[in-house]
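Exercise 7.
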Amino acid sequence: MVTITLEKAGKKYNNDWIFSELNCTLSGGESVVILGSNGSGKSTLLQVIASAIMPTTGKATYLFKGAEIKPEQAFRLMSIAAPYIELIEEFSLTEMICFHRRMKPLVRNMSTPELIRMCQLEKNSDKPLKYFSSGMKQRLKLALAIMSDTPVLLLDEPITNLDHNGIDWYNDMVSKTMRDRLIVVSSNSITAEHSFCTSNINIEDYKKARQFENSTIFQ
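Solution. The predicted structure, written as tokens, is:
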């Protein structure tokens, strides 16, 4: 079981606080959505949870099977799909999946052809990714993250570039792997992205304290 705890966490760029004084505990078996408008800092919070960036104030701690994991090693627990995660476009679909599997094993030791079938991209197995549509690339990003054998799954605006059938496919994929897993979704309040989530963090709730503090300094 994995547990991620943020204690009085805040992130600031230059003089602007993205969020502050955020306390939460996220545990395996939970599905949590981070809500907020465009540019509100949802992706920043997701990256702090992922240990990709460190909080400016407070701290993030990671426990796995009762043992504390150093933040710089926490990435081993996680898989992520996000707009800023790039695919290697010179690779074919088969090459990209094989490359990914060397870093993150797939659930049930799933084979590359099996994942390709799951993506519904069988006719494109040898096609370079640079020729894929945006929707095809998004399916691959999601499949690689969702089907990685990790206790934490992080999804940033996961239905971007997906059509109606793609959204149904995404929700079906998540439902197959969510048991005992911690899932955190960053969303612009689009229900189809996070209908399976049982709790939420509204990032707007963690801006007011610092904004008020900064405004009183100049009075």
